[in-house]
Amino acid sequence: MSRDSHSAAASVAAVVLAIAATVAFHLSPQVPLGVPWDEPGKVSQILNNHNNFYHPILMLQIARIANLWFAASDSASVLDLGRTMAAVSGSLLVFAAITLTRRVTEDSLALGAGLLTAVAPLTVLHSQIFKEDIFVAPWLILGLIALDDLRQCPTPRPAVVFGIAAGLAASAKYAGLILVPLCLLMPIWAKVRLFAYYRTATLALGTALAVFCVVNFPLFLTPRIFISSLHHETNHALTGHYIRHHGLYSNFLFTWNANLLPGLCDTLALAGILGASIIVVRWRANPPILRSLAVFALAWYLMHELSPLKPFPEGVRHMTVMAAVFAVFALVAARFVVSWLSPPLSLLVTAALIGGISVAPAIRSFELVRSAPNDTRLIAEHLVQGLGGSVAWFVEDFEDTGYGVRLSDARPLKVIEESADFLVVNELLAERYIFSLTLPGQSQFTRDVAAKYQALLRRPALLVTSKVGYFAFRNLPVRIIALQGDPHELEIAATRFGSLPDAKLQIAPVK
After folding, report:
1. Other C-beta atoms within 10 Å of 360: how many?
2. What is the pTM for the complete model shown?
3. How deeply is 150 buried, as exposed, middle or buried, from its count of CB atoms within 10 A (0-12, 13-18, 19+)?
4. Residue 249, exposed/middle/buried by CB under 10 A (0-12, 13-18, 19+)?
Protein backbone atom coordinates (compact mmCIF):
# COMPACT_ATOMS: atom_id res chain seq x y z
CA MET A 1 0.00 0.00 0.00
CA SER A 2 1.36 3.45 -0.95
CA ARG A 3 1.96 6.12 1.68
CA ASP A 4 -0.98 8.19 0.42
CA SER A 5 -3.29 5.17 0.48
CA HIS A 6 -2.15 4.25 3.97
CA SER A 7 -2.75 7.83 5.15
CA ALA A 8 -6.21 7.86 3.58
CA ALA A 9 -7.06 4.54 5.23
CA ALA A 10 -5.92 5.90 8.60
CA SER A 11 -8.09 8.98 8.11
CA VAL A 12 -11.10 6.81 7.36
CA ALA A 13 -10.36 4.69 10.43
CA ALA A 14 -10.14 7.84 12.57
CA VAL A 15 -13.53 9.02 11.32
CA VAL A 16 -15.06 5.58 11.91
CA LEU A 17 -13.70 5.48 15.47
CA ALA A 18 -15.07 8.98 16.14
CA ILE A 19 -18.51 8.03 14.79
CA ALA A 20 -18.52 4.85 16.85
CA ALA A 21 -17.66 6.95 19.92
CA THR A 22 -20.61 9.26 19.21
CA VAL A 23 -23.01 6.32 19.04
CA ALA A 24 -21.60 4.74 22.20
CA PHE A 25 -21.69 7.99 24.16
CA HIS A 26 -25.26 8.76 23.16
CA LEU A 27 -26.80 5.31 23.45
CA SER A 28 -25.25 4.40 26.79
CA PRO A 29 -27.54 4.62 29.86
CA GLN A 30 -27.95 8.19 31.06
CA VAL A 31 -29.41 9.97 34.06
CA PRO A 32 -32.52 12.16 33.72
CA LEU A 33 -32.72 15.95 33.75
CA GLY A 34 -31.71 17.47 37.06
CA VAL A 35 -29.08 14.99 38.26
CA PRO A 36 -26.32 17.19 36.80
CA TRP A 37 -27.85 20.17 38.58
CA ASP A 38 -27.20 23.03 36.17
CA GLU A 39 -28.41 21.29 33.01
CA PRO A 40 -31.94 22.65 33.61
CA GLY A 41 -30.55 26.18 33.34
CA LYS A 42 -28.99 25.41 29.95
CA VAL A 43 -32.22 23.85 28.71
CA SER A 44 -34.23 26.83 29.93
CA GLN A 45 -32.00 29.25 28.01
CA ILE A 46 -32.62 27.33 24.80
CA LEU A 47 -36.38 27.08 25.30
CA ASN A 48 -36.72 30.75 26.23
CA ASN A 49 -34.09 32.04 23.78
CA HIS A 50 -32.26 33.69 26.66
CA ASN A 51 -28.53 33.92 27.41
CA ASN A 52 -27.16 34.58 30.89
CA PHE A 53 -23.53 34.57 29.64
CA TYR A 54 -22.12 32.92 32.72
CA HIS A 55 -20.40 30.95 29.99
CA PRO A 56 -20.03 31.82 26.32
CA ILE A 57 -22.88 30.35 24.31
CA LEU A 58 -21.32 28.06 21.67
CA MET A 59 -23.03 24.99 23.12
CA LEU A 60 -26.38 26.80 23.22
CA GLN A 61 -25.99 28.06 19.66
CA ILE A 62 -25.09 24.59 18.38
CA ALA A 63 -28.18 23.15 20.05
CA ARG A 64 -30.34 25.97 18.68
CA ILE A 65 -29.10 25.41 15.15
CA ALA A 66 -29.70 21.67 15.46
CA ASN A 67 -33.15 22.39 16.84
CA LEU A 68 -34.11 24.18 13.63
CA TRP A 69 -34.23 20.66 12.20
CA PHE A 70 -35.41 18.62 15.20
CA ALA A 71 -37.94 21.17 16.53
CA ALA A 72 -37.66 20.05 20.18
CA SER A 73 -40.15 22.03 22.27
CA ASP A 74 -40.02 20.58 25.81
CA SER A 75 -37.30 20.19 28.41
CA ALA A 76 -36.77 16.45 27.92
CA SER A 77 -36.39 16.64 24.15
CA VAL A 78 -34.16 19.73 24.30
CA LEU A 79 -31.96 17.98 26.86
CA ASP A 80 -31.72 14.91 24.63
CA LEU A 81 -30.71 17.12 21.71
CA GLY A 82 -28.13 18.93 23.83
CA ARG A 83 -26.65 15.67 25.06
CA THR A 84 -26.51 14.41 21.48
CA MET A 85 -24.45 17.48 20.58
CA ALA A 86 -22.24 16.75 23.60
CA ALA A 87 -21.69 13.20 22.30
CA VAL A 88 -20.72 14.60 18.90
CA SER A 89 -18.31 17.00 20.59
CA GLY A 90 -16.83 14.09 22.56
CA SER A 91 -16.21 12.21 19.34
CA LEU A 92 -14.58 15.34 17.89
CA LEU A 93 -12.19 15.26 20.84
CA VAL A 94 -11.35 11.65 19.93
CA PHE A 95 -10.72 12.67 16.33
CA ALA A 96 -8.61 15.64 17.43
CA ALA A 97 -6.42 13.38 19.60
CA ILE A 98 -5.82 11.07 16.64
CA THR A 99 -5.07 14.00 14.31
CA LEU A 100 -2.50 15.48 16.68
CA THR A 101 -0.84 12.13 17.34
CA ARG A 102 -0.50 11.37 13.63
CA ARG A 103 2.01 14.22 13.49
CA VAL A 104 4.41 12.46 15.82
CA THR A 105 3.97 8.73 15.19
CA GLU A 106 2.67 6.15 12.72
CA ASP A 107 -0.90 6.60 11.50
CA SER A 108 -2.00 3.20 12.75
CA LEU A 109 -0.67 3.84 16.27
CA ALA A 110 -2.34 7.25 16.37
CA LEU A 111 -5.64 5.39 16.56
CA GLY A 112 -4.44 4.21 19.97
CA ALA A 113 -4.55 7.80 21.23
CA GLY A 114 -8.12 7.99 19.99
CA LEU A 115 -8.98 4.78 21.80
CA LEU A 116 -7.47 5.98 25.08
CA THR A 117 -9.33 9.28 24.78
CA ALA A 118 -12.61 7.52 23.99
CA VAL A 119 -12.56 5.15 26.97
CA ALA A 120 -11.41 7.62 29.65
CA PRO A 121 -14.14 8.46 32.18
CA LEU A 122 -13.33 12.13 31.60
CA THR A 123 -14.54 11.79 28.02
CA VAL A 124 -17.30 9.22 28.43
CA LEU A 125 -19.18 10.79 31.33
CA HIS A 126 -18.89 14.36 30.05
CA SER A 127 -20.03 13.35 26.58
CA GLN A 128 -23.30 12.36 28.24
CA ILE A 129 -24.16 15.68 29.87
CA PHE A 130 -24.98 19.08 28.41
CA LYS A 131 -22.10 21.05 29.89
CA GLU A 132 -19.58 23.42 28.33
CA ASP A 133 -16.39 21.47 29.11
CA ILE A 134 -16.87 18.79 26.46
CA PHE A 135 -17.53 21.55 23.92
CA VAL A 136 -14.31 23.45 24.61
CA ALA A 137 -12.05 20.37 24.77
CA PRO A 138 -11.83 19.46 21.04
CA TRP A 139 -11.24 23.06 20.00
CA LEU A 140 -8.32 23.34 22.40
CA ILE A 141 -6.63 20.32 20.80
CA LEU A 142 -7.54 21.41 17.26
CA GLY A 143 -6.24 24.86 18.16
CA LEU A 144 -2.86 23.41 19.12
CA ILE A 145 -2.75 21.56 15.78
CA ALA A 146 -3.58 24.77 13.91
CA LEU A 147 -0.97 26.66 15.94
CA ASP A 148 1.65 24.15 14.83
CA ASP A 149 0.63 24.78 11.22
CA LEU A 150 0.98 28.52 11.82
CA ARG A 151 4.46 27.96 13.24
CA GLN A 152 5.54 26.00 10.19
CA CYS A 153 3.92 28.28 7.65
CA PRO A 154 3.15 31.81 8.93
CA THR A 155 0.80 32.74 6.09
CA PRO A 156 -2.82 33.96 6.10
CA ARG A 157 -4.49 30.58 5.61
CA PRO A 158 -3.02 28.85 8.73
CA ALA A 159 -3.59 32.08 10.64
CA VAL A 160 -7.28 32.11 9.80
CA VAL A 161 -7.63 28.42 10.64
CA PHE A 162 -6.01 28.93 14.04
CA GLY A 163 -8.17 31.99 14.61
CA ILE A 164 -11.31 29.98 13.94
CA ALA A 165 -10.25 27.23 16.37
CA ALA A 166 -9.21 29.75 19.05
CA GLY A 167 -12.43 31.72 18.56
CA LEU A 168 -14.56 28.61 18.93
CA ALA A 169 -12.61 27.52 22.03
CA ALA A 170 -13.19 30.91 23.66
CA SER A 171 -16.84 30.77 22.53
CA ALA A 172 -17.27 27.45 24.32
CA LYS A 173 -15.75 28.55 27.62
CA TYR A 174 -13.91 31.67 28.72
CA ALA A 175 -10.95 29.49 29.74
CA GLY A 176 -10.55 28.68 26.03
CA LEU A 177 -8.77 32.03 25.78
CA ILE A 178 -5.66 30.14 26.93
CA LEU A 179 -4.84 29.60 23.24
CA VAL A 180 -4.15 33.34 22.87
CA PRO A 181 -1.13 33.54 25.23
CA LEU A 182 0.11 30.20 23.88
CA CYS A 183 0.08 31.72 20.40
CA LEU A 184 1.91 34.86 21.55
CA LEU A 185 4.51 32.95 23.58
CA MET A 186 5.20 30.07 21.17
CA PRO A 187 8.61 31.46 20.01
CA ILE A 188 9.89 30.70 23.53
CA TRP A 189 9.76 26.93 22.93
CA ALA A 190 9.63 26.63 19.14
CA LYS A 191 11.75 28.19 16.42
CA VAL A 192 9.80 30.58 14.20
CA ARG A 193 10.46 33.42 11.80
CA LEU A 194 9.59 36.15 14.26
CA PHE A 195 8.43 38.96 11.96
CA ALA A 196 6.38 36.71 9.68
CA TYR A 197 4.98 34.78 12.63
CA TYR A 198 3.77 37.78 14.63
CA ARG A 199 2.44 39.49 11.52
CA THR A 200 0.18 36.53 10.78
CA ALA A 201 -0.52 35.98 14.48
CA THR A 202 -2.18 39.38 14.45
CA LEU A 203 -4.50 38.14 11.71
CA ALA A 204 -5.12 34.95 13.70
CA LEU A 205 -6.12 36.82 16.85
CA GLY A 206 -8.31 39.18 14.86
CA THR A 207 -10.04 36.18 13.33
CA ALA A 208 -10.51 34.65 16.78
CA LEU A 209 -12.14 37.86 18.02
CA ALA A 210 -14.42 37.96 14.98
CA VAL A 211 -15.48 34.33 15.49
CA PHE A 212 -16.18 34.98 19.17
CA CYS A 213 -18.34 37.98 18.29
CA VAL A 214 -20.28 36.07 15.63
CA VAL A 215 -21.02 33.10 17.91
CA ASN A 216 -21.88 35.33 20.85
CA PHE A 217 -23.64 38.08 18.88
CA PRO A 218 -26.49 38.36 21.47
CA LEU A 219 -23.97 40.03 23.78
CA PHE A 220 -24.37 43.16 21.65
CA LEU A 221 -28.11 43.08 22.32
CA THR A 222 -27.69 42.67 26.09
CA PRO A 223 -24.24 44.13 26.86
CA ARG A 224 -25.02 44.73 30.54
CA ILE A 225 -25.86 41.07 31.09
CA PHE A 226 -22.67 40.00 29.30
CA ILE A 227 -20.40 42.39 31.23
CA SER A 228 -22.03 41.55 34.55
CA SER A 229 -21.77 37.80 33.94
CA LEU A 230 -18.18 38.02 32.72
CA HIS A 231 -17.27 39.99 35.83
CA HIS A 232 -19.08 37.43 37.98
CA GLU A 233 -17.25 34.48 36.42
CA THR A 234 -13.87 36.23 36.57
CA ASN A 235 -14.39 37.04 40.23
CA HIS A 236 -15.58 33.46 40.71
CA ALA A 237 -12.32 32.08 39.33
CA LEU A 238 -10.14 34.52 41.29
CA THR A 239 -11.84 34.29 44.68
CA GLY A 240 -13.59 30.90 44.69
CA HIS A 241 -17.21 29.89 45.12
CA TYR A 242 -17.95 30.02 48.85
CA ILE A 243 -15.19 27.54 49.74
CA ARG A 244 -11.74 28.92 48.96
CA HIS A 245 -9.16 26.22 48.39
CA HIS A 246 -5.81 27.63 47.31
CA GLY A 247 -3.23 25.39 45.69
CA LEU A 248 -0.85 25.66 48.63
CA TYR A 249 -3.43 24.03 50.89
CA SER A 250 -2.88 20.72 49.09
CA ASN A 251 0.67 21.23 47.77
CA PHE A 252 -0.78 21.88 44.29
CA LEU A 253 -2.01 18.30 44.09
CA PHE A 254 -5.75 18.85 44.51
CA THR A 255 -6.44 18.77 40.76
CA TRP A 256 -4.30 15.67 40.33
CA ASN A 257 -5.86 13.71 43.19
CA ALA A 258 -9.46 14.90 42.88
CA ASN A 259 -9.82 15.23 39.10
CA LEU A 260 -7.11 13.67 36.98
CA LEU A 261 -6.57 10.35 38.74
CA PRO A 262 -10.31 9.53 38.92
CA GLY A 263 -10.90 10.82 35.40
CA LEU A 264 -8.06 8.93 33.74
CA CYS A 265 -7.54 5.93 36.06
CA ASP A 266 -4.11 4.85 37.25
CA THR A 267 -2.77 3.25 34.08
CA LEU A 268 -3.53 6.16 31.75
CA ALA A 269 -2.55 8.78 34.34
CA LEU A 270 0.83 7.18 35.08
CA ALA A 271 1.58 6.41 31.43
CA GLY A 272 0.76 10.04 30.64
CA ILE A 273 3.09 11.32 33.34
CA LEU A 274 5.84 9.08 31.97
CA GLY A 275 5.26 10.40 28.47
CA ALA A 276 5.24 14.02 29.65
CA SER A 277 8.49 13.40 31.56
CA ILE A 278 10.10 11.96 28.43
CA ILE A 279 9.07 15.05 26.47
CA VAL A 280 10.60 17.34 29.11
CA VAL A 281 13.85 15.37 29.41
CA ARG A 282 14.26 15.17 25.64
CA TRP A 283 12.86 18.66 25.10
CA ARG A 284 14.85 19.74 22.04
CA ALA A 285 14.65 16.32 20.40
CA ASN A 286 10.86 16.33 20.38
CA PRO A 287 8.66 17.84 17.66
CA PRO A 288 7.46 21.38 18.49
CA ILE A 289 3.84 20.23 18.67
CA LEU A 290 4.70 17.91 21.57
CA ARG A 291 6.43 20.79 23.32
CA SER A 292 3.33 22.93 22.75
CA LEU A 293 1.13 20.16 24.14
CA ALA A 294 3.33 19.90 27.25
CA VAL A 295 3.23 23.68 27.79
CA PHE A 296 -0.54 23.66 27.33
CA ALA A 297 -0.95 20.78 29.81
CA LEU A 298 1.10 22.57 32.45
CA ALA A 299 -0.68 25.89 31.88
CA TRP A 300 -4.13 24.27 31.98
CA TYR A 301 -3.29 22.41 35.18
CA LEU A 302 -1.84 25.45 36.94
CA MET A 303 -4.68 27.69 35.80
CA HIS A 304 -7.11 25.48 37.70
CA GLU A 305 -4.78 24.64 40.57
CA LEU A 306 -3.93 28.28 41.30
CA SER A 307 -7.58 29.28 41.35
CA PRO A 308 -9.28 28.93 44.76
CA LEU A 309 -12.35 27.70 42.88
CA LYS A 310 -12.22 23.93 43.30
CA PRO A 311 -15.68 22.34 43.25
CA PHE A 312 -15.66 18.69 44.23
CA PRO A 313 -16.29 16.19 42.75
CA GLU A 314 -18.08 17.81 39.81
CA GLY A 315 -15.02 19.99 39.17
CA VAL A 316 -13.46 17.01 37.41
CA ARG A 317 -15.18 18.32 34.28
CA HIS A 318 -12.62 21.13 34.08
CA MET A 319 -10.02 18.49 33.14
CA THR A 320 -12.01 16.95 30.25
CA VAL A 321 -9.47 18.05 27.64
CA MET A 322 -6.74 16.22 29.56
CA ALA A 323 -8.15 12.89 28.40
CA ALA A 324 -6.77 13.65 24.94
CA VAL A 325 -3.58 15.23 26.29
CA PHE A 326 -2.72 12.23 28.45
CA ALA A 327 -3.66 9.84 25.64
CA VAL A 328 -1.00 11.46 23.45
CA PHE A 329 1.51 11.45 26.31
CA ALA A 330 0.78 7.77 26.96
CA LEU A 331 1.51 6.94 23.33
CA VAL A 332 4.80 8.83 23.56
CA ALA A 333 5.68 6.71 26.61
CA ALA A 334 4.74 3.46 24.86
CA ARG A 335 6.83 4.33 21.80
CA PHE A 336 9.79 5.19 24.02
CA VAL A 337 9.57 1.91 25.93
CA VAL A 338 9.71 -0.16 22.71
CA SER A 339 12.17 2.09 20.86
CA TRP A 340 14.88 -0.58 21.05
CA LEU A 341 12.76 -3.09 19.13
CA SER A 342 12.69 -3.50 15.35
CA PRO A 343 9.81 -1.72 13.55
CA PRO A 344 7.40 -4.63 12.96
CA LEU A 345 7.71 -5.92 16.51
CA SER A 346 7.72 -2.44 18.05
CA LEU A 347 4.37 -1.65 16.44
CA LEU A 348 2.82 -4.81 17.84
CA VAL A 349 4.22 -4.27 21.35
CA THR A 350 3.13 -0.61 21.32
CA ALA A 351 -0.37 -1.64 20.31
CA ALA A 352 -0.39 -4.20 23.13
CA LEU A 353 0.76 -1.58 25.64
CA ILE A 354 -1.96 0.83 24.52
CA GLY A 355 -4.51 -1.95 24.82
CA GLY A 356 -3.32 -2.73 28.33
CA ILE A 357 -3.41 0.92 29.38
CA SER A 358 -6.98 1.25 28.08
CA VAL A 359 -8.42 -1.63 30.14
CA ALA A 360 -8.72 0.14 33.51
CA PRO A 361 -10.35 3.36 32.20
CA ALA A 362 -12.66 1.34 29.93
CA ILE A 363 -13.86 -0.83 32.84
CA ARG A 364 -14.32 2.21 35.06
CA SER A 365 -16.31 4.05 32.39
CA PHE A 366 -18.47 0.98 31.80
CA GLU A 367 -19.23 0.63 35.51
CA LEU A 368 -20.20 4.28 35.85
CA VAL A 369 -22.38 4.28 32.74
CA ARG A 370 -24.09 1.02 33.69
CA SER A 371 -24.97 2.44 37.12
CA ALA A 372 -27.02 5.34 35.68
CA PRO A 373 -30.48 3.78 36.33
CA ASN A 374 -29.51 3.33 40.00
CA ASP A 375 -27.89 6.72 40.51
CA THR A 376 -27.94 7.68 44.18
CA ARG A 377 -29.91 10.85 43.47
CA LEU A 378 -32.68 8.83 41.79
CA ILE A 379 -32.79 6.31 44.64
CA ALA A 380 -33.05 9.13 47.18
CA GLU A 381 -35.92 10.69 45.23
CA HIS A 382 -37.79 7.37 45.28
CA LEU A 383 -37.04 6.81 48.96
CA VAL A 384 -38.34 10.14 50.17
CA GLN A 385 -41.63 9.62 48.33
CA GLY A 386 -42.40 6.85 50.83
CA LEU A 387 -41.68 8.94 53.90
CA GLY A 388 -44.55 10.31 55.93
CA GLY A 389 -43.93 14.02 56.00
CA SER A 390 -42.53 16.97 54.12
CA VAL A 391 -39.10 16.70 52.49
CA ALA A 392 -36.67 19.50 51.60
CA TRP A 393 -33.32 19.42 49.77
CA PHE A 394 -30.39 21.43 51.15
CA VAL A 395 -28.89 22.75 47.90
CA GLU A 396 -26.58 25.35 46.43
CA ASP A 397 -28.29 28.55 45.33
CA PHE A 398 -28.31 27.76 41.61
CA GLU A 399 -29.85 24.29 41.94
CA ASP A 400 -33.49 23.75 41.09
CA THR A 401 -35.08 20.91 43.04
CA GLY A 402 -38.54 22.30 43.69
CA TYR A 403 -38.69 22.47 47.48
CA GLY A 404 -35.15 23.37 48.45
CA VAL A 405 -33.44 25.08 51.36
CA ARG A 406 -30.66 27.27 49.93
CA LEU A 407 -27.16 27.42 51.37
CA SER A 408 -27.58 31.19 51.50
CA ASP A 409 -30.69 30.85 53.68
CA ALA A 410 -29.92 33.21 56.55
CA ARG A 411 -32.55 31.78 58.90
CA PRO A 412 -31.29 30.19 62.12
CA LEU A 413 -30.77 26.46 61.86
CA LYS A 414 -33.58 25.81 64.35
CA VAL A 415 -36.04 27.56 62.02
CA ILE A 416 -34.75 25.59 59.03
CA GLU A 417 -35.07 22.34 60.97
CA GLU A 418 -38.68 23.17 61.76
CA SER A 419 -39.50 23.83 58.11
CA ALA A 420 -39.53 20.16 57.05
CA ASP A 421 -39.74 16.65 58.45
CA PHE A 422 -36.81 15.34 56.44
CA LEU A 423 -33.86 17.07 54.78
CA VAL A 424 -31.77 15.65 51.93
CA VAL A 425 -28.15 16.77 51.66
CA ASN A 426 -25.23 16.09 49.35
CA GLU A 427 -22.86 14.21 51.66
CA LEU A 428 -19.71 15.28 49.81
CA LEU A 429 -20.76 18.92 49.80
CA ALA A 430 -21.41 18.73 53.54
CA GLU A 431 -17.99 17.17 54.12
CA ARG A 432 -16.33 19.85 51.97
CA TYR A 433 -17.89 22.63 54.01
CA ILE A 434 -16.92 21.00 57.29
CA PHE A 435 -13.39 20.46 55.96
CA SER A 436 -13.23 24.18 55.05
CA LEU A 437 -13.22 24.97 58.78
CA THR A 438 -9.62 23.70 58.79
CA LEU A 439 -8.60 26.06 55.96
CA PRO A 440 -7.60 29.71 56.44
CA GLY A 441 -9.23 32.59 54.62
CA GLN A 442 -12.83 31.33 54.59
CA SER A 443 -15.69 33.82 54.67
CA GLN A 444 -18.08 34.05 57.58
CA PHE A 445 -20.81 32.78 55.26
CA THR A 446 -18.82 29.62 54.54
CA ARG A 447 -18.20 29.04 58.22
CA ASP A 448 -21.88 29.55 59.01
CA VAL A 449 -22.90 26.98 56.38
CA ALA A 450 -20.27 24.56 57.70
CA ALA A 451 -21.64 24.96 61.20
CA LYS A 452 -25.15 24.16 59.93
CA TYR A 453 -23.83 21.03 58.24
CA GLN A 454 -22.04 19.99 61.41
CA ALA A 455 -25.27 20.24 63.37
CA LEU A 456 -27.30 18.46 60.69
CA LEU A 457 -24.86 15.56 60.45
CA ARG A 458 -25.38 14.86 64.14
CA ARG A 459 -28.99 13.90 63.48
CA PRO A 460 -30.28 10.39 62.60
CA ALA A 461 -30.05 9.80 58.87
CA LEU A 462 -30.10 7.29 56.05
CA LEU A 463 -27.07 7.31 53.77
CA VAL A 464 -27.45 6.34 50.11
CA THR A 465 -24.18 5.42 48.41
CA SER A 466 -23.14 3.56 45.28
CA LYS A 467 -21.12 0.37 45.24
CA VAL A 468 -19.64 1.62 41.97
CA GLY A 469 -18.44 4.85 43.57
CA TYR A 470 -18.97 8.45 42.55
CA PHE A 471 -17.57 10.47 39.68
CA ALA A 472 -18.39 14.01 38.55
CA PHE A 473 -22.18 14.35 38.88
CA ARG A 474 -22.77 10.60 39.13
CA ASN A 475 -23.60 8.63 42.28
CA LEU A 476 -22.89 11.38 44.80
CA PRO A 477 -23.54 10.08 48.33
CA VAL A 478 -26.88 11.36 49.61
CA ARG A 479 -27.85 11.72 53.28
CA ILE A 480 -31.55 11.79 54.20
CA ILE A 481 -31.79 13.43 57.63
CA ALA A 482 -34.69 13.14 60.05
CA LEU A 483 -35.60 16.59 61.37
CA GLN A 484 -39.16 16.66 62.69
CA GLY A 485 -39.89 13.28 61.13
CA ASP A 486 -39.63 9.88 62.83
CA PRO A 487 -36.12 8.40 62.33
CA HIS A 488 -37.61 4.90 62.28
CA GLU A 489 -39.32 5.78 59.00
CA LEU A 490 -35.90 5.88 57.38
CA GLU A 491 -35.21 2.29 58.42
CA ILE A 492 -38.65 1.20 57.23
CA ALA A 493 -38.18 2.98 53.89
CA ALA A 494 -34.78 1.35 53.37
CA THR A 495 -36.20 -2.10 54.16
CA ARG A 496 -39.15 -1.53 51.88
CA PHE A 497 -36.84 -0.47 49.06
CA GLY A 498 -34.97 -3.77 49.25
CA SER A 499 -31.57 -4.75 47.91
CA LEU A 500 -30.10 -2.99 44.87
CA PRO A 501 -27.25 -4.27 42.68
CA ASP A 502 -25.32 -0.99 42.60
CA ALA A 503 -26.49 0.92 45.69
CA LYS A 504 -26.07 0.64 49.41
CA LEU A 505 -28.54 1.93 52.02
CA GLN A 506 -27.40 2.25 55.61
CA ILE A 507 -28.30 4.15 58.72
CA ALA A 508 -25.57 6.79 58.81
CA PRO A 509 -23.29 7.14 61.81
CA VAL A 510 -23.60 10.46 63.61
CA LYS A 511 -20.62 12.72 62.88
Report:
1. 17
2. 0.94
3. buried
4. middle
